[in-house]
Amino acid sequence: MNDWIKQMGQFLMVALGIFCTLFILIQNPAAAAETGQQEEKEKLSLNARAAVLMDADSGRILYGKNETMAFPMASTTKIMTLIVALENNEADKIVTASAYAASMPKVHLGVQAGERYRMEDLYYAMMLESFNDAAVMIAEGTAGSVEAFAVMMNEKAVSLGCTQTYFITPNGLDAVDEKGVHSSTAADMAKIMRYAIQDELFRQITQTMHYAFTDCDGKRSFSVHNKNALLTMMEGVLSGKTGYTADAGYCYVCAVQKGDQTFIVSLLGSGWPPHKGYKWSDVQTLLDYGDKNYRYQTIDISKEVPDRQVHVMNGEQDFAAVRAQETNYRFLLSSEDKVHVESVLPGQLEAPVEAGQPVGSIQVFVNGDLTAENDYITADRIGIRRTWKERLLRK
Length: 395
Description:
Distance between the termini: 107 Å
Radius of gyration: 28 Å
Number of helices: 12
Structural class: alpha+beta
Low-confidence stretches: 4-8, 11-40
Shape: globular
Helix content: 25-40%
Strand content: 25-35%
Number of strands: 19
């Protein structure tokens, strides 16, 4: 009897919970839709231990799984290696292979100490075939040593807002030093790729299917082929880099254009051997999610940021009229995303004030995350207020 009463009590509690949930959703259709979208996010079946789907236009993360957890990132490291090299070298720079570069493990070009190569040829060898010795030659040719090049990589990462990334090697081989582990996050790697695809030469190199070159003395010939299979699997691939080590598992970072949308996909630890193809299904899952749920919308914020006035100290006029420099914003949004605007203006200005002078900012948030920022600017010039003696002297 007691067991029956206990079971009935549990049944009534479950029924009451379901009834309350249905009542809330009926009373609030927006909550119902949001719940549906959240459930879809939770249903995404991903092999990767960390993943990100990012809107390349705004940099907003549309979907994340363990996106801020640091893991080894294998040869996706070479995305940053190429960024730093492109920004600090001439294409025709000649690099001599060191004994250290020649000692790199497979996969490698097989350079021998003392051989000379054009820097640009090494870019293709590194990005198409992921050759580890080519990456070391690029690092040494750019900064003099791998250690000095790693400093440049880390400085660049910080400048891009990558707060949980630490580079030790230019090729992504597993490494640890006194400062930490060679690692990054899915979110940081997406930021790095977002920056990289703004460079036309970076895109050209990583989209190239085949490339042939020789060493500078013409003694050895090479032909390299792109290992980024996504280039042949779908249209619109702007760039991509694979990676694998025993610690990192299969990793992949790419940028794909679908219509007017450009998505960044970042995957860390998307399976281990023999599951080399898991990363491709993860990419497709995330791209399908983005394509299904997000569309570009133009948001007019003019009503939320009307023209305002700011007090001017020692000015010919007491107040300066200020207006928003931009009032229309184009965002990739889902039906449930919430946009709000905040104005940041100084309490006062000091004369003189120039026309068009930035005097504050308009911050546009999507779901509480700062997504766009622009200036308030002054409408007119306001000079310094002069005393009656100064005005007489000027006459």
